[in-house]
Amino acid sequence: MTRLWSAGRLTYLALALSAALSIFPIYWMFVVASRTSDTMGQVPPPFTPGGNLGANIAKLFDNTDAYFLAGLINSAIVASTVTISVVFFSTLAGFAFAKLRFRGRNALLLVIVATMMVPTQLGVIPLYLLMTKLNWNDRLPAVIVPALVTGFGVFMMRQYAGQAVSTELIEAARIDGCNTARIYWNVVLPALRPAAAVLGLLTFMTTWNDFLWPYAVLNDPENPTVQLSLRALSDGYYQDMSQVFTGTAIATLPLLLVFVVFGRQIIGGIMEGAVKA
């Protein structure tokens, strides 16, 4: 029987150091968010939170240049809608490409994979012109609709469905009288749940942190996403760094919350995929 490699003290030390280096920037962000702007110039800098967090949050939401509350709400709407749509359509298409037989399946999959090779920046101008024709500029549909389906999500779910979903199980469900829609909902989707959780987290993070496309189509300062609100905070001759760090800390909290809530299932999905590979 092969013995598992046991980690030594040096390994644990390296892991602890890596974790500390990864966590410290987030911790420092919350430290500055709880203090005044002159914290940035102190030598040595303080490493403990201050008592100005409440005042900084109140000042942030009262800032009429950033419209931070509107940015949070808009980003929550956009990120949630896009995530649900991407997970649904990606699992549906992944199941079809992996387990259903139809004419042109391989050619269509090749087209979807080819879309992943096109840089996002090349599509900004034609997509902006399309949004102008639809009269969607300065409106959230201009940010939501182009991101409802992604080639990466379809390809990822196709690869996972080919291994996680048994063909015999699908055939047994058909013998029991299930149609394709019911097979997808009752058989395929539960099997794809770990990979769908990983895809959902990646999609939510990408959409929440997206700046380029919202910056191109949302020109109304009263209707921003959270990233545009953070940009407004950092504009101008004078920058209140306490507000910038407070806004960044608040904008980071939804991402941390999503990871905490779905972390176990996400890590389980990653490990399951690694074992199958």
**What is the N-to-C succession of helices and strands?**
HHHHHHHHHHHHH
Spatial separation of the terminal alpha carbons: 22 Å
Total helices: the number is 13
Quaternary status: single chain
Helix content: over 70%
Strand portion, in percent?
under 5%
Please give the largest β-sheet: none
Radius of gyration: 23 Å
Quick overview of this protein structure:
With about 280 residues, the chain is an all-alpha fold.
Topology:
Layout: H1 9-33, H2 53-62, H3 68-99, H4 105-115, H5 124-133, H6 141-144, H7 151-164, H8 167-175, H9 180-191, H10 193-208, H11 212-217, H12 226-234, H13 241-276
Q: How would you characterize this protein structure?
A:
This protein has 277 residues and is an all-alpha fold. It is 70% helix and 0% strand. The chain is built from 13 helices and no strands. The longest helix is centred in the C-terminal third of the chain and has 36 residues, at 241-276.
